[in-house]
Each structure stands twice: as structure tokens, then as C-alpha cells.
Amino acid sequence: MRYQATLTVNGIPYPVEVEATASLLRVVRDVIGLTGSKEGCDDSECGACMMLLDGRPVNSCSYLALQADGREITTVEGLAPGDGLAPLQQALLEAGGVQCGYCTPGMLISATALLSSNPRPSEDEVRVALAGNLCRCTGYTNIVSAVLRASEGHPAGTPG
Amino acid sequence: MATVEEPRAAEALFIRPDGKEKVTGLGRYTADLNLTGQAHAKLRYADHAHARITRVDVSKARALPGVLAVLTHEDVPDVKYGGMVQDRRLFAKDKVLWEGDVIAGVAALTAELAEQAVSLIDVEYERLEPVVDFAAAEGAPLVHEDWESDSGDDTMGRDGNRIGYSTIVKGDADAAMAEADVVVKGRYTTDCSQGVPIEPRAVIAEWHGDRVTVWSSTQVPYAARAGVATVLEIPESSVRIVVPLLGGGFGAKCDFHFEGHVAALARAARRPVKLVFSRREEFVAVDHRREGMVIELETGAKADGTIVAHRGRLVLDKGAYCGEGGFFAQMAAMHACGPYRMENIFVEASLNYSNTQPSSSIRAPTAPQTCWALEQQIDELAHALGLDPVELRRRTLIEEGAEGPTRQVFEKLGMKETLERAVEMIGYGRELPEDEAIGVACGWWPCFGAPSGAYVQLHSDGTGTIITGAQENGTGAVMAFPILVAEQLGMSPGDFSLLYQDTDAAPWDMGSCGSQTTFNSGRAAIAAAVEVREQLLDAAAAKLEVDREDVELVDGEARVKGAPETSVTIVDLVGEGGPFHGKGSGDVPEAPECDAEGCVGRLGMESFLAPQLITQAAHVKVDRETGVVRVLKVAAAHDSGVIVNPMGANGQVTGGVVMGIGQALTEGTQIDAEGRQRNPYLLDYKLTTAADAPEIEIAWVETPTANAGPKGSKGIGEPPCVATSGAIANAIRNVIGTPVRQLPMTPERVWTATREGNQ
Ligand code: FES
Ligand code: FES
User: Fold this and answer.
1) H or E element: which one contains B170?
2) Are A74 and A91 contained in the same domain?
3) What is the whole-number distance in angstroms between the Cα of residue A75 and the centre of ligand 1?
4) Chain A: closest CA distance from residue B693 (Å)
5) Which tens digits make up the pLDDT trace of A91-149?
6) Cα(A160)–Cα(B238) distance, rounded to whole angstroms?
7) For B34, which residue in chain A has the nearest alpha carbon?
């Protein structure tokens, strides 16, 4: 059984027809064609699929597309202003927080949510906020320092 | 000895060329690609770990509407393939040998249909006793009944369920052991574990007439090309492998895996076919895990710590097939000796088949487990001698002029300096709460010399492109090539684009394995740049009417040395002449000389080329009531030669250490009596998270190294996870007073050891 829904992703409304069981991740990747969000486990264990739903981070693999009907979804593709990079994205590159990049979209979503609710997090707060995002490459060190760099009031931070 | 620690300019400036597409989410990994008209593949795996196949009926699957192709062994050439032993077929024929053996493949219009078709395939078996206890595999039912007819490397010492046997022999260990003042013995066992790249693998194949293009998340595109050509009996020139962005590998994506199945399905379906693995398949179906081991060590020393005798008996779990892990017995035997001066040695290592997932290279194969055992053994020896473990290492680690396990005489190396740096960074010897302690471990890993090739070409606007066979798995090794090339040409790294991961574009390369990318492929890129450099110097000399010896390339110009105003820009030279392009391979360094006459199973690892040296120190806290271990800090001091890209190198260490922590404490695949994995999910196979990862302090002991890679560099990628488990083990022992001899050192095992130690 397929249902009509409207998913608003990164500010653009997409009318879609989806199975009741389809995950938000599947629909955004396969139907809407935004492949930035990754599938690492399909089991709410890795965080690679993270999206913001009305500003709150969710594992989109374990979220039904229909539950997102009419709500605001932000994926990694929606983080950069125009052709530039968001401060967090820039900080991640400069700090060496990107290796294979597969965890990166989810990390960016988690960190964006953290900084919007807590603009000056401590290192421990960053680590706890990112605990749902597995990274096998970096050992997290450079990701954590990137988030701190991008946070408000940090000497190297670029607020806004 | 040069120890460079101050941050250098390159550190702040290096932004990976592939970084922007990764942070914006616009970069494409294999699973992100879709081709017009593509069908979806699913594989039918064995239902048992060891069984004879008596009947396979695919008729119901073929009859399902929307199914385009169903293939079994009957539909592809009867070819056996594999690394050092050719013991595997694309689709199982007579027997299944582990739970991930592939019996059939399906291509259908949707993934759901393909899944349904797979479940409609009827397979009947005669069940056989699975060989799960690899240490008892000799004498158990044969895993490969026809092993004698499998072609393979004769030096491995194959015999029934034993696929490899190697020894390291030096002097007379028995006689020397009898003379030792102190002898310690230890038996250590390790669970197998997994690479767990966060990207599950994906493969897409599309045929164009008789040629096939395969997009694959592989670390070794050239090996994948050879594999497809072999199993489908087509020329390598008919196979093109393209690797989109690769979401990590850690060895798990080395070797030829599923490209052949998907290419065969695409040919039969007459459409592009896409296969994407689930996380469960990434655990269960991948023929690539870290091997389980049993390690027995006996070490004898004089009262002053001199190690006079060392004996070892190691058994490694090869799993069902050889894959590219045929060399493991000898590699493990070398690691059982470690970077120590030992006067007499007898170490034997057996690599045994079993009916479980094949073991193959996962980041520094065999080394972390063996190092974990040996480093505990060294600490036990120190305790028995009444010496501080660090002091014992000071007295026994290798140094310039020392002799290795096969009498390789080492050139300049920074082993002892890594020890001193690690000890200093961790604050060894300071007072700690009684539930905290520090442990230290040392290790090593060789560089692998291998052929490689690269092209460099300049464009009319003074930019250039580097075309390399090297593969990027996330480490950034390839990303550093523009630094190496630009330096030769007086240009800037930002002037260069990179073309890589396309077997039609660039010469053969081993791939992103063996920490060899900078070491070998970097050398090739430099050689190609040197050719271009010569062309530019010729052109500039003619243009400026000076001797070419007087011309230098600096800041985008060719100038006369000492008279920089006499110059021409590289842009002008390229605009007026050319073409400027070069190719290079670089010279492959020879293995160091040694005396391995008494050793058997010699596969080329009996001496270690340009060894990378490691000391890590871990500060841990142990909850004696629960056995839970928390790592508070790791200090990692490495001699990887001269560091080309500090930010990239540091990232390898932090990543490797955190992987090492997982392997030390939580990462173990449990296998039941039937040969099945019990925890093939991230919920039960726990990786270390950001909240659990400790502070990691790094020091590079940059030793100018003979026979090294570009600028005196050695490899970097694998060593960081080698010594971590050993350092943590020794720290735990220093808290609870007794060693934990099973890896991973789970709370239950730590708790049990604590209790037994107290009795
Ligand atoms: S794919 Fe959603 S949490 Fe892993
Ligand atoms: S960068 Fe590879 S998983 Fe995080």
C-alpha cells in the first residue's frame, strides 16, 4: 500500500508516494535522490544516516518516511550556504576530521544539532553528543576538535 | 637522531582535495550510484558451515516475475581462484565450507524481488561436522577434501587442514633455555575480529559488448580486475574497475570479493546490476576478518634481562579459504619475536583451515594479537626478573647494528627512542589511584616494496594532473601526492588534480594495503614528476640560453640559480612547448639480507624492510567489581621515518589507536558450535565511540631510514593499532595483578582474571 506524502528536504517540498514501511533514509536517497545521508547499519547503531527533523537529529534509517510528512528535514546537503561551506564543514576539513568521509554527513548533522542547542560545548559534551556516530577512521580526535573550533567563542571559531 | 615535534607549516595547510565533496554530501560512494535500467542483486548463502550440497533447485526463483537472472556454479566457468592457494569457486559446487559461502546469485528488478527469489532457491545438504576449533584442525575432518589438487605456493608447507607452516629459527633455543636464570611461559588466545568499515561494500557492473565496467568499493582495484578476468575467463583488458569514493577499508576491502558475481549476473541479466551489502552481510559474508589465534610463548633470560631463548607455538585460524592471507604463519612468527634482541629462537606457526569465515588482511594482519601476547610475556618476564618492564625493554629492544630474529642487521632506527618518548608522554612511574595504572607495549611492522606506476602531465595554464594506480581508502595517502609532485616542479600542491582508482587510466598498483601507498606509489609519482622536471629544465635552458645545470624550478618559475631575475614562468614554458608529461615507477627496494637457512615456510617476511617501530603507553582505570576497563589516555610514539603529511599521519595514529582499543576491550566475533557468528551486528559487536575514546598524544621519531620511501618516509597506516592492545593489557595487569590472557579483554574476562588472581 502506497501513501502520498510531502517531504520538505532542505527547504524544498517533494511530493512522494511511499510504502508505509519505507524508511526516511530510503525515500530521501532512492526517491528524492539526495545520497549524502549514508546507510551504515539500518539499525540505529552507526549514525551515518542522521538527518535533522524539525531541527532534531534522528537516525533516518529507523524513522518512517510517513512520520516525516509535512515536517522540515535537513540533510547534509542542506548545511552549506550556497556554494560555500558552513563553519562546521570548514572546521572539519581544516582539523583533518574527514578521512573516508562515510561518517561525515551524520557527524555534521549531530554536531550542527549540538551547536544550535549548546553553542559553547565542552569537549566532554561534544564527545557525548557524537557518541551515536561511529567513525572507524579518525579515532574522533580531529572531529571533536573541529566541533570545538566551530563553536562560539573559540579563538579559531567563525561564529555564525 | 632527529625528533621533530614542533608543528610545521604543512600541518595547518593541508586540506584534502576530496574534502569538499565529502563534507557537502555531494561526493558519490558506490552505493550512491544508480545506472539506467539497473537490476538489483542478492546472494544466496550457505545454510550450514560445513555440508555437502546434494541438490540445488533454482526453478522457482527463475519463475518469479521480475527475476532476470539466477546463477549457480553451473552457469560460470569452473575456475578455482585465490591468493597463494587457489581453493575457492565463485559459487559453491560440491560443498559449502562456511556460513558465508555463496551458492547462487539473483538479479531482479528490485532488491525486494531479488531477496524473495533467493529464498525460493531450494538447497538440500548432507550435513558434515564443522571444524570450528581451528587449533584442533589437524586431525579433524578435512575442510578441503581435495586440497592436494588445489594449486598453490609450494613453500607454504600445506598439509591437510594446515594450509601454512612457518618457523623462525635462530641458534639453539632448547639448549639456551636450559641455561636461562629465569623462564616464563604464557598461553594466550584471541577471538577473531572484524575490519568494520562504516561503508558496507557495494558493487555495480555494466557490460559494453564484451567489456565490463565494475564500480566497486574495493581497496585493490587491480586485484579485483584480475579476479574478474580469472573467474569469467576473459582478458584483463576487458575489465575496467572504477572505485568511487571509498568509505573505509582497514583491509576488509582488500582482495577480489564480489565483483565476479555481479559481473556474471549483469551479463546474464543484460542490464547493469547493483549489489549493496547490509551490515549483517558485512560481518557474515565478507571473506575477510582478523584471524583468531592461540599463542604459546616461553622466554628465558639471564638475571640482567638478556633474552637468551624464546620459543613460540602459534596456531592461526585461516577460516575456509586462503584469500590473500596465505602469508600469515610467517608474519605471525616474526611478530612473536618482536623488535627484541633474542639470542636463540624457535617459533613455529601453523595456519589452519576451519569452517568459519576466511581470515585475511585486516590492518596489520596477525600483529596486534601477537604483539598483545608477546608484550604481556615481556612484562611477565620483567616481573619474574624483578626488573621494571620499561627497564627490561631498554635493555632488550633492537637498535642500530642489532641482529633481528633471522640475523638481519638493522640500520639506523628509532625503536628505543619511541620507548622513551611514550614513557615520557604518559608520565610513567607517577603515583596513581589504586584502580588506575599504566602499561607499555612495543611492536613493529615492515614496509612492503612493490612495483607501482604513475603519470604526471602539465596543462597549458600551468596546472597539472597526477594519474596514479594508487587507491585511496580514506587515509589521505594519495591526497598527499600533489605535495610530493609539486615539490619536484617548483609548483604548488593546489596546482594538481588527481586521477586515481580507475584501472583503465593508470598502471598496476598493489592497492591501499600494506601501508604501501606513500612508500611505493608515492615513489612512482615522484619519478614521473622528475621526468617532467627534466623536460622543463631543458625547455627553460633553451629559452633562457643558459646551461640547464644552472636552472632551478622555484615558485612556478624556471630561474637561473643566483640570478633569479633571469627567469621564465612554467605557464609560459608549457604554453610555448611541450607536451610536458612523465611516467615513473621508482625503484623497488630489496629485502634486507638475513640468514633464514634454518627457517621453513619462507614467504618473504623473514626480514623486515625499513621496519616501522612503535611504542604505545596506555593509562587505564579498571573497575574490579565489574571488570569494566576505561582507557584514559594513550601515548603513541612511532618511528615511521620522515613524516610527509603530519595531519594525515596523526589521523592514522588516532584512528588506529581507537581501533586498537576496540580490539583490546570489546571487539570479538563469537562463533557457536555450528560455526555461525553469534554477534554480527553493531549492537553486539561494539566499536569504540567518541565518548569512550581517550586523549591520544603522539610523537614522531623521524629517523632517516635506509631503503625508505619518499623523503625517507616509511609506512604509517597499519602500525598504530599494533601495540594498543598490549599496552592496555599490561596496564590492566598492573591494576589487577594478573594477566588477562584472552582477547578481547571483556569485562567478564577481566573480572574472572581478577578473581582468579586474588585466589
Ligand atoms: S544507518 Fe541509520 S544508524 Fe546506521
Ligand atoms: S572518516 Fe571514515 S568512518 Fe569516519
Assistant:
1) strand B162-170
2) no
3) 14
4) 7
5) 999 999 999 999 999 999 999 999 999 999 999 999 999 999 999 999 999 999 999 99
6) 52
7) A30
Decide if B105 contacts B267 (C-beta within 8 A).
no
Measured between CA atoms, the residue of chain A closest to residue B717 is: A137
Average pLDDT score over residue span A65-71: 96
Question: Distances from the Cα of B745 to the Cαs of A67, A158, B92, in angstroms?
Answer: 42, 43, 36
Give the residue from A99, A145, A147 with the most B CB atoms within 10 Å of its CB, the best one to mutate. A99
Q: How far A151 CA sits from the closest chain B CA (Å)? A: 17
Query: What averages of pLDDT result for each successive group of 10 residues across chain B (759 residues)?
Result: 37 75 97 98 98 98 98 98 96 97 98 98 98 95 96 95 98 98 98 98 98 97 97 98 96 94 98 98 96 98 98 98 96 98 98 98 97 98 98 98 96 97 98 98 93 94 93 81 93 93 92 75 93 96 95 96 94 91 89 93 93 97 97 97 90 97 98 97 97 98 86 88 98 97 98 85
CA distance B241 to B503: 5
Q: What is the ipTM of this complex?
A: 0.96
A160 band by pLDDT with thresholds 50, 70 and 90: very low
- Looking at the structure of chain A, the number of domains it has is 2
Ligand 1 binding pocket, CB closer than 6 Å: A 39-49, 59, 61
The yes or no reply on domain B363-447+609-757 and CATH 3.30.365.10 is yes
- The pTM assigned to this predicted structure is 0.96
- Beginning with the edge strand found earlier in the chain, give each strand of the sheet holding A56-59 in spatial order: A12-19, A2-9, A72-74, A50-53, A56-59
The pLDDT value given to residue B662: 98
CATH number at residue A109: 1.10.150.120
Q: Do A96 and B655 touch (CB under 8 A)?
A: no
Distance between CA atoms of residues A113 and B748, nearest Å: 36
User: The C-alpha cell of B354 is what?
Assistant: 576451519
Give chain B positions within 8 Å (CB) of A104: 22-23, 25
Q: Does A52 touch chain B (CB under 8 A)?
A: no
Fold agreement between B30-128+199-247+254-284 and B454-584: no
Please choose, from the candidates B116, B110, B105, the residue with its C-alpha nearest in 3D space to the C-alpha of residue B267.
Answer: B105
Question: Which homologous superfamily does the CATH classification assign to the domain defined by B30-128+199-247+254-284?
Answer: Aldehyde oxidase/xanthine dehydrogenase, a/b hammerhead (3.90.1170.50)
Looking at residue B553, its pLDDT comes to: 96
Residue B682: which of A39, A43, A75 has the nearest Cβ? A43
Collapsed DSSP state (helix, strand, coil) of residue B90: coil
Longest Cα–Cα distance of chain B, Å, equals: 87
A152 Cα to chain B: minimum distance (Å): 20
Q: Which atom of ligand 1 is nearest to the CA of A134?
A: 4
pLDDT, average across residues A47-51:
98
Cα of B568 to ligand 2 centre, how many Å? 44
Q: What's the confidence (pLDDT) of residue B1?
A: 33
DSSP state of B533: H
CATH of the domain at A42: 3.10.20.30
Q: How far is CA B219 from CA B223, B263, B405, in A?
A: 9, 18, 32
Neighbouring C-beta atoms of residue B78, cutoff 10 Å: 11
Q: Is B408 left (phi over 0), alpha (psi -120 to 50) or beta?
A: beta
- Cβ atoms B567, B550 nearer than 8 A: no
Among partner residues A39, A93, A139, which is closest to B19 by beta-carbon distance? A93
A23 and A67 assigned to the same domain: yes
The residue whose CA has the least distance to atom 3 of ligand 1 is A44
Task: Render B407-427 in DSSP notation, one character per residue.
Answer: -PBP-S--HHHHHHHHHHHHT
Ligand 2: does its nearest atom lie under 6 Å from the Cβ of A138?
A: yes
Tell me whether B669 touches chain A (CB under 8 Å).
no
* CATH class in words for B454-584: alpha beta
